[in-house]
UniProtKB/TrEMBL annotation:
This is FAD-binding oxidoreductase. The keyword Kinase does not apply. Belongs to the FAD-binding oxidoreductase/transferase type 4 family. It holds the Pfam family FAD-oxidase_C. PROSITE patterns: FAD_PCMH.
Length: 461
């Protein structure tokens, strides 16, 4: 049967690339969650801001929902198209548009991969500091949509700290030029910041001006083995007081087991319940001596069982693989993922509370913890047993997530630290946001997207 609306879109934008083959619909209609059957109406791959505007205006006229799509590496169902939506993929809009040496900014299209942004910054002797394991496949547009964090938030902050300006097509088809790269701008509401973390529900980013910074001084990487969970915060406080930390990442022995089975190399002999990968500035021997002194003090206090200091870039990369390879190593086990955060000061009690909760609710199921202790962000991965059906497993995990959300509410935390709400977490939004906040968020969405065509069902129903 002819889809007259899609025919009209092709007529209006004759250069627009449109896909409708079953394999394309499946590929572009899902993200890494794999929990929903993709069923988009078609896939549009614009090559310009004008085409994006044309698509949004067409969607308003035909009342067609749009799901913006980047690298689709999300873990919350934010890029899922399961109800006949048009997927608007930005993968063809992947160029560097300009570099300003005075302002030290890089202007890019939203479909460019994070790794390509890193490379472009290096070409100018500078650094775009947001970084995480999916750097080769995630896109800047998706990073902005979820305010992505990653492994160096402790030093550099989240994505929003590095966005100097945005061009966005709002849900009504208007092109907004937000902040224009200004450092100081007190002329009313900062709509740029409102767009960051909005998960494509207010507008579609078509251009981003990124702030760059100086490359960090020479750094060193250390892997630590810890005997107890309580030692995590003691060691973090110790190293933060004596060193300039860039990252402080922890994982459990269960996580190590999976990443070793996936091809990583063991760096510390013996079995230990907790591990930390930390990276710190080390411009001279004095700093290295301070790191070794901190390590020795931790051993004396009983907080550290063993450790290794990388002696080369290759060894540093191998140590980082033990942390960054976890997500990929867990993928075959169909993990149910929680991505939560609390204030760093609330972590000690919160860690005990969720350890008790998870041990009680998942007595015979592997639960893999890892995350960013330095910014209060934990990733909890529940691995599906072969004996459980997908439906039964999801039902059990959602029951536990409700209990986890209650625990987060008690500690003033968030059900989503850096992956967004999407479809997966919208039922738990009230654990993080008050009814008044949610009402205001709905009102803001109505202003930017009056017909509700942008990513409907995401963030809140």
């Amino acid at each position: 049967m002819t889809d007259h609306a899609i025919v009209d879109l092709a007529r209006r934008l004759p250069q627009l690339r449109l896909l409708s083959e079953p394999g394309d619909l499946e590929h572009y209609g899902r993200d890494w969650t794999r929990r929903w059957t993709p069923a988009p109406r078609a896939i549009a791959l614009p090559a310009s801001s004008d085409e994006v505007q044309g698509i949004v205006r067409w969607a308003n006229e035909h009342n067609v929902a749009i799901v913006p799509s980047g690298g689709r590496t999300g873990l919350s169902g934010g890029a899922v198209a399961a109800n006949g939506e048009l997927v608007l993929s930005l993968e063809r809009m992947n160029r560097v548009l300009g570099f300003d040496a005075v302002d030290r900014t890089l202007t890019v299209q939203p479909g460019i991969a994070l790794e390509a942004v890193h490379g472009a910054a290096r070409e100018h002797g500078l650094l775009y500091p947001v970084d995480f394991a999916a750097r080769g496949s995630c896109s800047i547009g998706g990073n902005i949509a979820t305010n992505a964090g990653g492994i160096r938030v402790i030093r550099y902050g989240n994505t929003r700290e590095w966005i100097a300006g945005l061009k966005v097509v709002a849900g009504n088809g208007e092109l907004l030029d937000l902040n224009r790269g200004l450092i100081k701008n007190s002329s009313g509401y900062d709509l740029r910041q409102l767009m960051i973390g909005s998960e494509g529900t207010l507008g579609i980013v078509v251009e981003a001006t990124l702030r760059l910074t100086d490359p960090p001084p020479t750094s060193q990487v250390m892997l630590l083995a810890l005997p107890t969970m309580d030692a995590l915060m003691d060691v973090f406080a110790l190293f933060r007081s004596r060193l300039s930390l860039q990252a402080f990442e922890f994982f459990t022995d269960v996580a190590l087991k999976h990443v070793l089975a996936h091809g990583a190399q063991r760096a510390i002999d013996g079995d230990h319940p907790y591990y930390v990968v930390t990276e710190f500035e080390s411009p001279d021997e004095k700093t290295q001596d301070a790191a070794l002194a901190a390590f020795e003090h931790g051993v004396e206090q009983g907080w550290i069982s063993d450790g290794v200091l990388a002696q080369s870039d290759a060894q540093a990369a191998a140590l980082w693989r033990l942390r960054e390879g976890i997500t990929e190593s867990l993928a075959p086990h169909k993990p149910y993922k929680n991505d939560v955060s609390v204030r760093i000061g609330a972590l000690p009690v919160f860690l005990h509370d969720i350890q008790t909760l998870l041990a009680r609710e998942y007595p015979h199921i592997d639960v893999v913890w890892f995350g960013h202790i330095g910014d209060g962000n934990l990733h909890i991965n529940v691995l599906k047993p072969e004996s459980l059906s997908d439906a039964d497993f999801i039902a059990q995990c959602e029951h536990v997530t409700k209990l986890l959300a209650d625990t987060l509410h008690k500690h003033g935390g968030s059900i989503s630290a850096e992956h967004g709400i999407g479809l997966v977490k919208r039922a738990y939004l009230e654990s993080t946001r008050s009814p008044a906040e949610i009402a205001l968020m709905r009102g803001i969405r109505q202003v930017f997207d009056p017909l509700g065509i942008l990513n409907p069902g995401k963030l809140f129903a």
